[in-house]
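TASK: fixed-backbone design
INPUT:
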């Protein structure tokens, strides 16, 4: 049975005090049992506090990025060893903001994937087409290429540590979400691409999250689709009530 997952990508939001407040509210209000595995990804400087605060809860912690090198003269960067040494064993890679704003190529993302997996981290691998790709009918090609070029070099065994997150760029932070039918169509396609390359066992087991303007009022419909295994949530993850409404919509 593949896992249901709802992850909150906090991006560059929440200082130390605000992180503490949001985590306290999540801990206080999260149901004792949730169908979904719940993960939050605060910014680097607040990860250690988040790990400490969420110890003995069901909420996991993810980083939003990692550097591909083991260490060295890379001013401003964070290594996989640094993350795992503070108890962070999950990382978001390939996010469209990293691709577009920080010019991360498929090749760079592929090497970050390798480093994270080498350190036994779980990778939440993000990908998705831009509006122009969808308008030109090229969205399936783009998505397949991002998967092949950024991820498909990994071994079969590594898939146990991979979660896919389809995030159409045109739906991120825009308030415009893919329709549940568009999400399902793409998720089904993604699973087929994985099946062709790695076999049915892996394709059936891998969780495929949808991201892009998921809100309390549209989560249930999107999560109701058979190939949508949860969500990667941006803006709505910054308020405990909204995030938990999404968590319980699964
Ligand atoms: O980028 C996202 C999650 O990684 C989605 O962001 P929004 O939910 O704000 O559209």
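OUTPUT:
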């Amino acid at each position: 049975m593949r896992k249901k997952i709802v992850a909150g990508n906090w991006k560059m939001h929440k200082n130390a005090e605000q992180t503490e407040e949001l985590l306290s509210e999540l801990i206080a209000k999260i149901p004792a049992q949730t169908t979904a595995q719940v993960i939050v990804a605060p910014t680097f400087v607040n990860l250690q506090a988040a790990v400490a605060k969420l110890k003995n809860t069901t909420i996991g912690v993810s980083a939003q990025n990692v550097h591909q090198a083991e260490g060295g003269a890379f001013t401003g960067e964070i290594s996989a060893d640094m993350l795992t040494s503070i108890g962070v064993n999950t990382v978001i890679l390939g996010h469209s903001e990293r691709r577009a704003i920080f010019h991360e190529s498929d090749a760079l993302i592929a090497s970050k994937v390798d480093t994270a997996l080498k350190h036994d981290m779980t990778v939440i691998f993000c990908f998705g087409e831009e509006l122009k790709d969808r308008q030109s009918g090229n969205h399936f090609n783009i998505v397949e290429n991002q998967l092949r070029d950024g991820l498909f070099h990994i071994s079969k065994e590594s898939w146990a540590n991979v979660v896919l997150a389809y995030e159409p760029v045109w739906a991120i932070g825009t308030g415009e979400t893919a329709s549940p039918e568009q999400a399902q169509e793409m998720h089904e396609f993604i699973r087929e691409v994985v099946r062709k390359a790695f076999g049915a066992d892996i394709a059936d087991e891998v969780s495929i999250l949808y991201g892009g303007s998921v809100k309390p009022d549209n989560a249930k419909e999107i999560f109701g689709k058979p190939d949508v295994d949860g969500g990667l949530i941006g803006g709505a993850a910054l308020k405990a009530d909204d995030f938990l409404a999404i968590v319980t919509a699964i």
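COMMENT: Strands lie at 5-9, 37-41, 59-61, 90-93, 122-127, 162-166, 208-211, 230-233.
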